[in-house]
Amino acid sequence: MPEEAFYEEMLPREAEDNYPLEEDTGLAEPCMLSADISLEDQLSNIGVSFHDKLFELIDESHLDNKDVWKRANLDRKHFSKIQCDQNYHPKKKTVIALCIALKLDLEQSKDLLARADWAFSPSSKVDLIVQKAIIDKQYDIMQLNVTLFKYTNEILGV
Hints:
56% of the residues lie in helices and 0% in strands. It is mainly alpha-helical. Helix 5 crosses helix 7 and helix 7 packs antiparallel against helix 8. The two termini are 30 Å apart.
């Protein structure tokens, strides 16, 4: 199927078609919020941060940091800031670009986004296009940016 037809087929779908209920994959830590557990106990079981998870995923991918920031279409200084500042809060598009660079699947991408306090939106063309690319394992960020620009006038990365 030609790429253009591929993305045109995906865009008009209703939100509920793109977001089926999924089984727990164990990617994120279970939510322990409960009236029976003290706030201190809940806070002591906090999950891994965005920063730590990102660099864990980079290690698992066996990629150099340089490969990651280039594949994500980020500049070296921006990636260095993410690397050096454990409390850095990246923009959503930066996290998405990193998901593409690391060739994460949809669940891993949702998990990394959540750790940065973001989520895919069923009402965002960018998010729908990115999710479709991830599902179809189309991880070329330049080609993805061509498609994103065509439909939204936006791109990922720099």
